């Protein structure tokens, strides 16, 4: 494998180094799931070329997917114009996404660039997936607490087939309490797997062009059912029960 950079943020690594890094990220993510460096690292290391090629090919076979690959849009607070999203009617996808960002105290500017995927086009495909992750949260109504992240990973695995998302859906529930695990398996996994499998390919959605659309209409177009019960509300109810 060439050690030359294929794109500005590329960090080429050899096979054995890739293996060592993958193992380090796996154990790091297991011990410190709050550390985003481990999560992003293992995501890229396990984004194997055949998997990304399949996703890229699905984009090439789709009109909107081809447009995304051609235009290479990036998702930041500037490209989205958050003030405009704030001004949209409350039942639009754009306003729903804006309110989700405020509620979860996150920003679209926090998605780090891809480093460890060698092919330049496949690196963009993974970058696009990474930057659209918060849209998946917003359309499903799931928060960024660990329980919510695991649920979104199940949703994404069912739709994208990315190995690290599937591994997260299988392994990460063991970090939860018994009550959280039961809720995840009984309430959220059925919704996430069913909708992830049956909805349109999310990689082919030009989310930036859907902001003015009513969110219920967008869900219908994508084949996504109404979201499951609000996770933060259920978690607060659990806390109230403990107090009483």
TrEMBL record:
It is found in: Mitochondrion inner membrane. It comes from the Eukaryota. Zn(2+) binds at residues 133-134, 137, 149. Its main location: mitochondrion. Keywords: Lyase, Membrane, Metal-binding, Mitochondrion, Mitochondrion inner membrane, Ubiquinone, Ubiquinone biosynthesis, Zinc. PANTHER family: UBIQUINONE BIOSYNTHESIS PROTEIN, UBIQUINONE BIOSYNTHESIS PROTEIN COQ4 HOMOLOG, MITOCHONDRIAL. Component of a multi-subunit COQ enzyme complex, composed of at least COQ3, COQ4, COQ5, COQ6, COQ7 and COQ9. This is 4-hydroxy-3-methoxy-5-polyprenylbenzoate decarboxylase.
């Amino acid at each position: 494998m060439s050690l030359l950079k294929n794109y500005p943020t590329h960090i080429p690594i050899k096979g054995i180094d890739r293996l060592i890094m993958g193992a380090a990220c796996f154990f790091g993510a297991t011990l410190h799931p709050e550390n985003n460096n481990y999560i992003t690292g293992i995501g890229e290391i396990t984004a194997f070329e055949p998997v990304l090629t399949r996703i890229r090919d699905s984009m090439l076979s789709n009109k909107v997917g081809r447009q995304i690959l051609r235009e290479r849009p990036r998702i930041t607070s500037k490209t989205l114009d958050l003030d405009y999203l704030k001004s949209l009617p409350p039942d639009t996808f754009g306003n729903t996404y804006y309110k989700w960002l405020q509620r979860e105290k996150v920003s679209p500017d926090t998605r780090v660039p891809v480093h460890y995927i060698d092919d330049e086009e496949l690196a963009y495909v993974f970058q696009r997936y990474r930057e659209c992750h918060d849209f998946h949260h917003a359309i499903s109504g799931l928060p960024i607490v660990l329980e919510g992240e695991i649920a979104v990973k199940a949703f994404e695995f069912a739709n994208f087939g990315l190995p690290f998302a599937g591994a997260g859906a299988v392994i990460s529930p063991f970090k939860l309490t018994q009550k959280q695990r039961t809720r995840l398996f009984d309430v959220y996994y059925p919704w996430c797997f069913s909708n992830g499998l049956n909805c349109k390919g999310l990689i082919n959605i030009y989310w930036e062009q859907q902001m003015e659309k009513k969110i219920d209409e967008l869900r219908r177009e994508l084949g996504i059912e109404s979201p499951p019960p609000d996770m933060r509300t259920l978690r607060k109810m659990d806390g109230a029960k403990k107090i009483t």
